[in-house]
Write a structure and sequence with these properties.
By secondary structure, this protein is mainly α. The chain contains 16 helices and 4 strands. The protein folds into 4 domains: 95 residues, no CATH class; 86 residues; 30 residues, no CATH class; 160 residues, no CATH class. The chain has a two-stranded antiparallel ribbon with strand order 1-2. Strands 3-4 form a two-stranded antiparallel sheet. It starts with 7 loop residues before the first strand and ends with a helix. Bound molecules: zinc ion. Zinc ion binds next to loops.
Amino acid sequence: MDFVTNDFLENDVEPLNVSDHKPLSCYIHIQQSKESMKSKKQTTSSTKIYSKPRWEKCNIENYKEEVRNNLEHLDKNDISTFDINYKIARIHETLKNAEIKTTKGRKKKKCTSKKKLWNPEIRDATKKSKTAHVEWKNAKTNISNVRRKEAKKHLRKVQRQTAAAKRNNLYDQISSSFQNQQKTFFKLVNEQRQRSSKQTDMIRVNETEYLNIDNIIDGWELYFENLSEPKEDPRFDAEFQKQVNEDIMIKEATNNIYTAKITEELKTKSTLKYLGIQKQPLYNPHPIYKFTGPNPFEVLKAQIKARILTGTHILQENLQKFNQHDIDTTCELCHREPEDRNHFILTCKKLEDKRQKHLQKLTNLVPALQERPAQLLQCILDQSHEDLTGLVPADEETMSQIEQHSRDMLYDLHRARTSYQKLNTQN
Ligand SMILES: [Zn+2]
C-alpha cells in the first residue's frame, strides 16, 4: 500500500464486518491509454491469482527485506503515468518471489503406504530376500530357487503381520480416543478414510476377483446379498441361534397375550367400540400416531383424535357416564339431540361449515363411504377397525391421507365446540 500511494485513509470497520482487516480507501491518479484498456480486457481470463503467504512458515524480516530491495527501482513518484497493468504484474511477481525465497518449502509428498510399513524385521526379511534373489540369479539351481521363494514368502508374511498389527493398533486408538479425545478421534478417522491408506485394491467373493471400483461395488453387493440369505452352516454359533429363536418366540407369545387381553376388554367397554386392534400391537403403532411425523402440532392433533376415539374426550354423553348425578346429554351447541360421537362428528348443525370441507376430501379419497354414515364415522375415528376391511384401501399412502384429513377434521370440530362453549358461559 505504501508503495502504490502515500495518500490513503484508514476507515472504521462497519459493525457487521467481522473481518480482522481494516478497510482502506485511496485515490490513485492514473492515465491509461485505450490500447492498454483493450489489452487488459483480453488478459483478464488468464490473470493469475496468488494466495496469501503462509506467514507462520515465512521469515518475515527476510521477506520485508526482499520486497524492499526489489521494489526500489520502481519509482513511486512515477505513479500517475505508469502502465498500471505492467507495474502491478511486477509487484505481484516481486511479492511471490519474496514469499518463495523466505518461506520454508512444502514438505515432500508423504510416503506411500507400502513404504510406511518399515521395521527391523521387514528390513532383515527384505535383505534376505534380495540376497537369495541374487544368489539364484547367479547359480540358477533348484536349491537356490527354493531359497529365493522361501525368502520372498517370509518377507510377505512379515509385511502382512506388520500391516495387521498397525491396523489393529489404529482401531484400538480410534476406539479409545472416541471417549476422551474427540480431536484425535476425528484425525484418525479422517486418515482412515483417505484413499492412500487403503490396504487393498480388490475383493474376492465366491472365488471371483473384483478389481476396479465399479466391479468392487458389484462384489460387495453379491457379498451382502449372500450374507442376508438365511442358511444352515455348521460354523454357526448354535447357542446364540437358539437364544435368538427363543427371543422371537417370547415376542410372539407376549404379543398374543396382549392382543387377547385387549380384545377381551373391548367387548366390555362400549366407549372403545370404534377402536381397532393392530396386528402385533406391541410393535405396530396405531395409525393415529403412525403418520404424524415429528411435527409437535400434528402430534397434539393426534392426541385430541385419540381422546375422541377412546371416549375420554368430554362430550355431554360421556359427562353423564362419568358423573353420578343426572346430567342432560343434549348437545349444548344446537339443543336438538343427545351429544354423542356421531352427533358431534357428523350431524350437529352448528358445526356443519367446519365439517364439510374435510368430509369432501375424505369421500373423494374413499367414494365407497359416501352413502354409509356408520362406516364413514368409523373411518374418521379409526380406519384400522376390522369393520372397514375391504372397504377402505390399506396402502400406506391412502392411510396417511385419511389420517391427515380425519385428524384435521376432529381438531377443527373440537376447536369450534370449545369456542361455542366459551361464548355460552360468557353470556
Ligand atoms: Zn349439536
